[in-house]
Amino acid sequence: MDYVSTRGGNMRADFRSVVLSGLAENGGLYVPTSLPVFTEKQITSWSWLPFDELVWRIISPFVGSSMDESILRGLLSDSYQQFKHRAITPLEQIGHNEWILQLFHGPTRSSKDFAAQLQARLVEHFLGEVGKEALVVGATNGDTGLAALEAFANCPAARMAILYPRDGLAPEQLSALQAADPQRVQLFAVDGNFDDCQTLVSRLLREWPLDGVMPVCFNSTNWIGVLAQIVFYFHAALQLGGGSRPVGFSVPAASSAEIYAGYIAQKMGLPINQVIISTNSNDALHQFFHCNRYSTRVTDRTVSPGMDFSLYSNLERFIWEIYEHDGCSTKALMEHFESCGEMSIGNQQWLRARVLFDSYAVDESQVRDEVVELFRETGSAIDPHTAVGVLAGRLHRRSLGAPMVTFGQIAPAKSAALLAELGVWQANVPSTVEVRAQPPYLAKDDLEGLCKSLRVAEQRLS
Predict the structure, then answer these.
(1) Which residues does the UniProt record annotate as the domain Threonine synthase N-terminal (predicted)?
(2) Which of 64, 240, 351, 426 could join 1 via S-S bond, C-beta 3.0 to 4.6 A?
(3) Residue in 137, 111, 144 with CA at minimum distance from that of residue 123
(4) CATH code of 288's domain
(5) Cα separation, 245 vs 402, whole angstroms
(6) Residues 6+ apart with CB under 8 A from 125
(7) Is 223 in contact with 30 (CB distance < 8 Å)?
(8) In a domain, 342, yes or no
(9) Percentage of the chain with pLDDT > 70?
(10) pLDDT digits 0-9 by tens, 122-172
């Protein structure tokens, strides 16, 4: 399996090079040159498979000859050993043909664990092969960084640099980041929002300052962030229709990787009849799919903070797909967006996207009402991110005959204070956590200061 850049050029990379990367050399994202396509007969034969075996069937074609089968199987199996539910991703019924796919049984109780656990094991394996060290770098507004921190804790060849918005993390999330080993993890509080952190990371990867140290991005710009989540769609569809019955999905827009993964899963042969992109009041992605208008904007703080941003890195991969792998057009569109902060795509491409995708934005009062209503009618407590997806799925599903599956990305316990306030949580709310003084703030456009700090730390630790 070969990989190319979304922004064109003649470069090709194998799976190992893609894993041990930040961005492609020309600033694009790596994408496979082709996709494995499975027949209905093949997919339906997987209904009885345990989760790690299903993962191997889906992921192994993307790995190709970069890894022996026995090693890959062992690595995949090990990736899910810390998950607390024997089904890994159990389904919960919440209404007539309505389901929640629980993706929060990993070690940090969020869907980010799937990509992080897999990526850490792949990085460790390939670093051992090439005999090098890496700096794993990325931005977080909470769960992504914590999942990466947990996953890479046992990867001695990789150190970490984590950027986060200085006022954008919950105290318990910030406290967990601060507990990391300072000999292995550098924290950078950025004087801006999560979008500013993402932008600074992208600039860093394009102007990498550390000779001899490989940059690996833990955000979903790395292909593993997509690959790990294609499995979600196959697993749910096999449980609800054996792989032959059309299924719809509602995906809370806390990650564009999950949305793009749905598009890929359908192209691989899975009968998906609809993907609803559900956003909170920070509706940049909704505006793109609903009105063909995508732009950066000031984001509001909401009760579903995992969606409080407007930059979606995997949108570039999706544009490359709907422009039929035209790297030149993709590059022109993305460079235009990076220069002026807004973008529209061709009408033909937008209509092609709408064949599969719908979108809906849910306001704050609707989120709270949905949490309470679902608890009263089913006894199930859900976090506000899941509530966004459940409501959007119910209001905008195309077919009552097809199951509608909402991705439950975050454990309800992580929103215990809000759920207790709404009267749907009986457990003790965690007490106030102690947060240490934060490091000096990094200006949101201070790439030079970030590079200097990384060089100093590298010299001290090497």
Answers:
(1) 3-80
(2) 64
(3) 137
(4) 3.40.50.1100
(5) 8
(6) 67, 71, 75
(7) yes
(8) yes
(9) 98
(10) 999 999 999 888 999 999 988 999 999 999 998 989 999 999 998 888 888
344: burial class by Cβ within 10 Å (0-12, 13-18, 19+)?
Answer: middle
Number of domains into which the chain is organized: 1
The type of residue at 338 is E
Cα dihedral 219, 221, 224, 226 sign:
positive
Integer Cα distance of 254 and 393 in angstroms: 16
| Consecutive H or E run containing 443 | strand 442-443
For residue 272, tell me if it sits in a domain: yes
- Cα angle 232, 180, 453 (rounded to 5 degrees) comes to 105
* Residue 65 identity (one-letter amino acid): S
Asked whether 46 and 238 are in contact (CB, 8 A), the reply is: yes
Residue 30 to residues 8, 85, 212, 267, Cα–Cα distance (Å): 10, 33, 22, 18
How far is 298 from 311, CA to CA, in rounded Å?
A: 11
Cα torsion 168, 393, 117, 311: sign: negative
Angle, in degrees to the nearest 10, between helices 364-378 and 384-396: 90
Domain that holds residue 335: 86-109+224-421
Helix H or strand E encompassing 147 = helix 143-151
Tell whether 400 is covered by a domain. yes
> What's the pTM value of the predicted model, to 2 decimals?
0.95
Confirm whether 206 is domain-assigned: no
**3-state SS of the chain: helix, strand, coil percent to 5?**
45, 15, 40
Helices and strands counted in the chain (H then E): 18, 15
Structure confidence at residue 284 (pLDDT): 93
Structure-token pair, residue 408 = 């439950």
- 79-135 tens-digit pLDDT: 999 999 999 999 999 999 999 999 999 999 999 999 999 999 999 999 999 988 899
Contact of 64 with 227, CB cutoff 8 Å: no
